[in-house]
Amino acid sequence: MRIRHIGGIGDFGKLALLRHLMQGRRLAVCPYLTGADDEVKDFDKHFDYLRRPDEFRHLAPDLFDQLVEIVSGRTVADPLAALQTSRVLENAIFLRHEVPKQTSLRPLWAEGLVNSVSGANLVFLDPDNGIQGKRLTNRHVALAEIAALRLKGRVLIIGHHQSGRKAEVKYLADQMKDLGYNLVEIVRLRLVASCLYVILDQDEDMADATARFVRKWGSWAKSYRF
Prior knowledge:
By secondary structure, the chain is an alpha/beta fold.
């Protein structure tokens, strides 16, 4: 999660998807905090949508209005805390454990993550970049962490910024299949940038909810099932 982008158009899509899918579930939000100074570049590019309500507000009216309030108070020192206290995601658990840079420390960190979300049956992982590929940094979700978070009755959603890799959606789906996930759906939201949301182990009710979300968002969204 890029803290200074909170309330931007990427967040609008991401939070709208989570709000749509979290009904009847206990949600845990896991921002992969890095401690990096991520001052917003091209502020208008990320936040201009809030000045275009006729184009975007109908997609998620209540959320749009709440994000207008959050962004208008951006002088607050802790935008993540402001997001949590706004109850945009109702009573979701927000974890604030900074991801270690040293890969040798990741297993212990991951153990704490798994323990912290033990009461959640919907878990959202929000890294700066996405899912581990050829290398693992603190801006990525480790494949081992995805495997460790699997639990019967739990749905896992992972954010992944599309990198331009050839056949990237299929590549991600194959990674998840290799981890033992048989039900994989990937939703692409193409707003300022293209972001993929990898949804694992969803049941029929959530699959139907995902389909309704994609239909409502029209040309902004596309879904792939594997």
